[in-house]
Amino acid sequence: MTPLISFRDAGVAFGSKQVLEGLNLDIAEGEFVCVVGASGCGKTTMLRLIAGLHPPSEGVVSYAGQAIARPRPEIAIVFQDYGKALLPWRTVSGNIELALEAAGTPRAERGAIIANLIALMGLEGDGGKFPSELSGGMQQRVQIARSLAQRPQVLLMDEPFGALDAMTRQGLQDELQRLMMQQRMTVFFVTHDLEEAIYLGDRVIGLRRNPGRIGKVFDVRIGRPRDQVATPEDPEFLRIRRELYDFIRDTEREPAS
Ligand SMILES: Nc1ncnc2c1ncn2[C@@H]1O[C@H](COP(=O)(O)OP(=O)(O)OP(=O)(O)O)[C@@H](O)[C@H]1O
Fold it and tell me: Is there an atom of ligand 1 within 6 Å of 47 CB?
């Protein structure tokens, strides 16, 4: 089967600095892949390659067998900084509508789609509010709803819950898990939080740095739905957690640049 996303000997250099090197990775449709690694190892750059925001300096990154040359409507991004991602002068509905405008969805069809997404993300009653009237967690729900309005096959998430408090983060992790199970989307998720990566991922990719490269891949063979209390006590979770911490500790001994 053709992987949905594949990296073939892909690398990125900024000037004389090799940031990513020799990336080889296949991501299957419907897979949830998390990427972890020490600060500056190239996680965001890897995500930007899939997003079509940056070309590889060598090798190929492809989507459904085609080299990714520019952003594509099938691939949506959710950023950590919801404060900057949302337009403050537009309401929740207006922000979600942005994606529909970009996709050329006829005006008459937009209301029903927006109402569905508002319900899906638990934002009922908030459609007319402005971002400044919402908590961080709610704003991040709006950003996710807006990404889903694009009807993507792939969701790229760059530390989407990194700025949220622990309770809100856990709630959104479970929302995301539910969405993925319902909609069979493929997710590429960058995080600093090792437990979050294991909790959400089918696979966790551990990057080494300088230059950034794939150091170790962890398969997470834990059934779904996962549970915030039971899953972190699962022996498989604990085993991967130990290995992942050892791996990260080891990579942090490598020089940053
Ligand atoms: N546009 C750019 N020009 C020059 N260097 C860049 C550019 N973008 C990223 N870099 C460098 O590439 C390296 C990897 O950056 P990247 O943001 O991908 O790492 P990261 O793993 O996501 O970091 P963090 O965990 O701190 O967010 C860093 O050394 C960064 O300074």
Answer: no
Q: Tokens 């059934």 identify what position?
A: 223
pTM over 0.80: yes
Nearest-atom index, ligand 1, CA of 257: 29
The CA-atom distances, in angstroms, between 248 and each of 17, 71, 99 are 22, 31, 37
CA of 46 to the centre of ligand 1 (A): 10
Question: Ligand 1 within 6 A of 54 CB?
Answer: no
Report the alpha-carbon distance of residue 54 to residue 205 in Å, rounded.
20
Ligand 1 binding pocket includes 16 (Cβ within 6 Å): no
Q: Which of 150, 168, 187 is the last residue of a domain?
A: 150
- Asked if 161 and 91 sit in the same domain, the reply is no
Half-sphere exposure at residue 135, Cβ-oriented, CA atoms within 13 angstroms: 10
Interface confidence, given as ipTM, is 0.96
Mutate which of 16, 23, 44 to test ligand 1's pocket (most atoms within 8 Å of Cβ)?
A: 44
Q: How many domains does the chain have?
A: 2
Nearest in space to 80 (alpha carbons), one of 148, 158, 146: 158
What is the extent of the structural domain holding 215? 5-74+152-252
Residue 145 lies in a domain: yes
**Per-residue model confidence as pLDDT tens digits over 206-254:** 999 999 999 999 999 999 999 999 999 999 999 999 999 999 999 988 7
Residue nearest to atom 17 of ligand 1 (CA): 44
